[in-house]
Design a protein that fits this description.
The protein is α/β, with parallel strands linked by helices. The chain is built from seven helices and seven strands, in the order E-H-E-H-E-H-E-H-E-H-E-H-E-H. It starts with 8 loop residues before the first strand and ends in a 14-residue tail after the last helix.
Length: about 240
């Protein structure tokens, strides 16, 4: 199935490298105009330049998603460049490594600020734009969480697990509230130790969830192994998706 995201504008956070860069490139290849966000401006611009060199449309925008004012800057710069906003992929994350007994409070707070408060800010602010402006076009929000925060522990990553468990809960309520505005909210659970060669599977699932093909799917939780093994992604959402 060929997915067409022409006439759609997307923001991908944490997209200056790795999984986020793969998601940004995949959405752009499907026709979306993409705002590539990263804390590092050089990384954000490099991925955006790669997309443009391949014939797509993209801009790089440096912003820290844990800061509400920088989130506003990211969103408004995207709208000023492309005129609208249809898709948000909350991918930015940090993973401090420590035992619980030795966990530094600053690292704990920073992890929850980026991994949980960032998606709250971005979902709230983009949700307002989509609800006010998109009408029947609606919108799509895809959260990249982890089974480490939902189903399994992850050694020396307590802050990461807490933040990702919070993201799953937040996303389900976000889906319920945003449904009235035609905004779909779904969550992907890549393996916590996923290697670079598996990023494309995450990107393909994100592409599906951003598309009209997933137009009746919201509130879903999608373990990436189900999708990468060939299962229809619409069939693996947990109860509550529709």
């Amino acid at each position: 199935m060929k997915i067409d995201l022409n006439q759609r504008v997307a923001i991908v956070t944490g997209a200056g490298h790795g999984r986020g860069a793969t998601i940004a490139r995949t959405l752009a290849t499907a026709g979306a105009r993409v705002a590539v966000n990263d804390l590092n401006p050089d990384r954000a611009e490099k991925v955006a330049a790669d997309i443009r060199a391949a014939g797509g449309q993209a801009i790089g925008i440096a912003a820290d998603v844990s800061n509400k004012f920088q989130c506003v800057h990211l969103i408004e710069t995207t709208r000023a460049e492309f005129g609208q906003l249809d898709i948000l992929v909350n991918n930015a994350e940090v993973r401090p490594a420590s035992t619980i007994l030795k966990q530094d409070e600053w690292e704990w707070n920073r992890c929850l600020e980026v991994n949980l408060k960032g998606p709250f800010f971005m979902s709230q602010l983009t949700g307002r734009v989509m609800a006010d402006e998109n009408k029947d076009r609606g919108g799509a929000i895809v959260n990249i969480s982890s089974p480490a925060g939902f189903a399994t522990p992850l050694e020396n990553r307590a802050a990461f697990c807490a933040s990702k468990a919070g993201m799953v809960g937040f996303a389900r309520e976000c889906a319920r509230e945003f449904a009235a505005y035609g905004i779909r909210v779904n969550t992907i659970l890549p393996a916590a130790d996923q290697e670079d060669d598996a990023h494309q599977a995450v990107a393909h699932l994100a592409l599906f969830l951003c598309s009209a093909a997933a137009g009746q799917t919201t509130g879903g939780i999608f373990p990436i192994n189900a999708f990468s093994s060939g299962t229809d992604p619409a069939a693996v959402a947990e109860p509550g998706a529709r």
